[in-house]
Amino acid sequence: MYQPAHFAEHDPETWLALMRAHPLATLVHHDASGQATIDPLPLRVTQQADSMLLQGHVARANPLWRHADGQTVLAVFHGPQAYVSPGWYPSKAATGKAVPTWNYVLIECRARLRAVDDPAWLRAFLDQLTVDHEAHRAPGWQLEDAPPDYMAAMLRGIVGVELQVQAVAAKFKLSQNRDPADRQGVLAGLDAEPDPAAAALAALMRR
């Protein structure tokens, strides 16, 4: 990933917050022929001392778990993104020297993937994953709500994946290369946009 120094984010807590808020990652790996391919995959992230672990599951019919087992892969988490108009910069009115750009946030995790074809592991993982996404709902769904034979069939149809993260590169392109007046102009422009992603991006800029 091209990474200008002024867009690099080095705070692990900031990484974790974004990855947990936007868990649907793009997993980049190689198929059986060696061609690069991608799979969208929700991933649960945990921090363990100085290491980071990503966990998820795929359909058993998906060849990813066979082909990528043991591979070094990329998991890319995408945060808010929005178009930035040059008309938002006060400097544009003074000099005319401005062009459109795009502000965005993403985190690239380089990791070793391990396939986990283990029913007990899967059950424990899915219990925790369900708690993550259902705890704030009333009432929240849980695995026990489904008939046991149905859930057993569903479990047989998936395989777990576990990614031990080796390196993280976080790019937060939030107008850090502009002067304070232009950054305020971008914030005002984003605040006026109807897209919720623009509001989320503005909140990240303010942080």
TrEMBL record:
Gene3D superfamilies: Electron Transport, Fmn-binding Protein, Chain A. Signal peptide: none annotated. It comes from the Bacteria. It comes from Ideonella alba. InterPro entries: Split_barrel_FMN-bd, TR_PAI2-type. This is FMN-binding negative transcriptional regulator.
